[in-house]
Amino acid sequence: MWQKVKNYYHLAQALIASVIYGFPAKKLKVIGVTGTDGKTTTVQMIYEILTASGAKAAAISSIQAVIGDKTFDTGFHVTTPSPFALQKLLKDTVDAGCQFAILEVTSHGLDQNRVALIPFEVGVLTNISSEHLDYHKTFENYLEAKSKLFKRSKLSILNADDESFSFFKKTAKGKIVTYGVKNKADFTLNNFALRLKISGEYNYYNALAAAALSKNLGINDNLIRKVLENFTNLTGRMEEVKNNLGIKIYIDFAHTPNALEQALKTLRSALSSQNSALISVFGAAGERDKLKRPLMGTVSARLANITIITSEDPRSEDPAIIAEQIFEGFKKRGGKLGKNVFIETDRGKAIKLAVKMAKEGDIVAIFGKGAEKSMAYNGKEFPWSDKEEVIKVLEKKTKNENRF
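Given the sequence above, the corresponding structure tokens read:
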């Protein structure tokens, strides 16, 4: 009941904000990208294709908002901005002379009416896996929230390989275009061949989604392919931190069981030899979906040689309890503390431990934070950067490896 009241409040905010800023979305072709994982990368791919074609576009994602020649921070731990912030960004997009606005849209944003009154030209679905059940309570509610985008889009770009495909195919109201790697679809690697610079099957899904949308906007195949095949990883998305220690270190935003599994599979295939190890560092956010915690533990137990469980925005929860809940997933696969799994709730110390343990040829992967610039503890945001922490650790190890 209380949630419905809050949603009506957000709807009122969306209406007031739209009036104040002159309903800017009506003057744009708005593209919404939703899904559990891959939204930010897909938004950026679409943005780069559109701008390469000569169209003026703005991109608003969890990393930043790029409008014209200006870049704005979109805030801490928020993908879809508040109605007032969003309408202001859309007004800035119109003022910059843009034709398109590409929005990363979350289930929270859809359910809470943060994107209400926005007429979507296109809705894009990346994939769906269990997430945010702390808020939505059931997976069915999660799907229903996501479906709002496709009920309001003139064109829906759907993942034919995703288990949710049938549901969204039934609920989408406009034209439907499909893409996929495994099943029959309008856009596949067979009829739209791609050779990406970035690794991972999941990135081929992101690229095919961007290609399907762009082709339906009338953009030339060769241009689409050229942009996608030259696309490089975003900050905090499988971002490599170079070093001279003979190890590979990656920072990635993966924070769901599916994203963690796909990332670990990709990195596992990149190990230089059978003697090389994949070291996984991750946690799970506090006050968020608790059901995914042991699932993530099981994924890492199966795919990583060594796992270090740590903190990731614990908020009001005890980081040690969250770590124990993740560890439950290791117990199912015979994981033992001190052997192939370690718990270090201090994220900085966890990163240091991972780098210290790594030998030449190993891969260290740090998940969950990506490009985020803060850590949430007890209602406060504290400055934090995985990349800066890695660099600090590397500098100490390089200067004096004997005392590391």
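The chain has a mean pLDDT of 91. Try to locate this feature in the token string yourself.
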